[in-house]
Amino acid sequence: MRCPSGFLFLFAVCFRAAGAATPPPLEGEIGGAKFSIAVPAQWNRAVLLLAHGLRSEDRPLIADLAPDHLAYKTLIEEGWIVAKTSYRRNGMIVGDAIADLDALLDHIAARFGRPDRVLLEGESMGGLIVTLMAEREPGDQPRYHGGVAIGAALQIREPNSTIGLSLQPRVPLIFLTNQSELDGPRNYVVADVARESRVRPQLLRISRDGHVNVNQAERLVAIRALNNWLDRGPGSLPRPNPNAPFPDVTVVAAPQPSKVKMSPDGRGFAAKVIEVSAIYGNLFIDAQPADFAAAGIERMTWFELSAGDRTFRAMHGRDFGSVKRGEWVVFPNADGFYWLARNFADAAATGLLKIGDEVRIRRFSTPASQPEGRIVAPAYQP
Predict the structure, then answer these.
(1) Do the beta carbons of residue 19 and residue 77 sit within 8 Å?
(2) Most CB contacts within 10 A, which of 93, 100, 145, 372?
(3) CA neighbours closer than 13 Å in the CB half-sphere of residue 126
(4) Rg for the chain (alpha carbons), in Å?
């Protein structure tokens, strides 16, 4: 990875967390909400609570904490407790989600002792939840000391809820936002309101399109910036480049040596599944853009995808919206590798795939850029 210019003080983000695997998290349930808590070898009395985004009501309740991901693994190795709640139900949930986060913090304090610092990180709907929690009156002893809202969906509302944004955070609040979704967070940050708390929220820009399309290094940049703000004041925050309204904290993932097995004729390759989303069934594979280029599979073209004895047709797209509902798509993520998914469907269940399994990707013998009805190929499963 390459560090963004001007961020030498954040040099620690520019590595992949190494060393022994993180011990399994503690798991349990509070009031119907499942939780997962990653506990360090020696606690520094700091806690990071994670607020997830909107999930379909038909998906399982899972506190899908990923303690081996770079940002969280780094914090755990530094002594942080990192924890996540499933909330008590899926769907649009704001008020009850806030209560579930409060209950998880109470559980941590009862089991391990009162923390000295508690930060929140939320994405999409979770970004709205973090923003609302940052607006609450902190009292004499604040429960939460700051928040990072990633791709915050500030425009959504929970039905029949009386909770709304005041635009006045009471604790430091950082929005980490893709360039294609700047409007909502920017309007919040520059709102012409008298901020009684004198806490001015900050926006950090990611020069990449998408929704919550940020990598682990960028998450860690935002958490470090929030921590520095609390320790040293707003003067420690990243500075924007000349003529830019907001700091750009993009961390570009440098290409790594190819991990795939190219086919003898060069028209395809075999890749490995390295992660599976327990919530959505999306697959993270170890292919990179250079691998698709080497196989001659251009962006926005169809190709043949095989898993075991099953064969599918998939699109080398830009995001989920590149295909119709139920169709297969692969697209690069912010960490430089690829997601393999079905739009609004479970790719892992359809392909009977798990971590370590192999998928085979192959260019069609006819031009893959032809419209769907003109591809001369065997019958493919959806």
Answers:
(1) yes
(2) 100
(3) 24
(4) 22
> What CATH number corresponds to the domain at position 16?
3.40.50.1820
> What does the buried/exposed string (b/e) look like for 180-191 if buried means 16 or more CB atoms within 10 Å of the residue's CB?
ebbebbbebbee
Classify burial at 214, counting beta carbons within 10 Å of its beta carbon; exposed 0-12, middle 13-18, buried 19 or more. buried
Per residue in 253-285, pLDDT (tens digit) is 999 999 999 999 999 999 999 999 988 999 999
101-139: burial string, b at 16+ Cβ within 10 Å, e else: bbbbbebbeeeeeebebbbbbbbbbbbbbbbbbbbbeee
Q: Give yes or no for a contact between 236 and 226, defined as CB atoms under 8 angstroms apart.
A: no
Please check whether residues 277 and 232 belong to one and the same domain.
no
- Residue 94: how many other CB atoms lie within 10 Å: 19
In terms of residues, how long is the chain? 382
CA 51, 57, 60 angle in degrees (round to 5)?
Answer: 75
Domain that holds residue 318: 261-374
C-beta separation of 36 from 84 below 8 A: yes
Angle at 204 between CA 148 and CA 242, to 5 degrees: 160
Quickly count: other Cβ atoms within 10 Å of residue 235's Cβ.
8
Q: How far apart are the first and last CA of the chain?
A: 36
Do 312 and 208 fall within a single domain? no
Dist. CA 104–CA 183, nearest whole Å: 32
Q: With respect to residue 2, please indicate whether it lies within any of the assigned structural domains.
A: no
Helix (H/G/I), strand (E/B), else coil: 53: coil
In a domain, 216, yes or no: yes
At 219-246, the pLDDT tens digits run 999 999 999 999 999 999 999 999 999 9
pLDDT in tens, 341-382: 999 999 999 999 999 999 999 999 865 444 443 333 333 444
- Give the integer Cα–Cα distance in Å for 108 and 94: 21
- DSSP reduced 3-state for 96: helix
Question: What's the number of domains the chain is made of?
Answer: 2
Q: Does pLDDT of 15 surpass 70?
A: no
Residue 114 has pLDDT above 50, yes or no: yes
C-alpha–C-alpha distance, residues 382 and 327, integer Å: 6
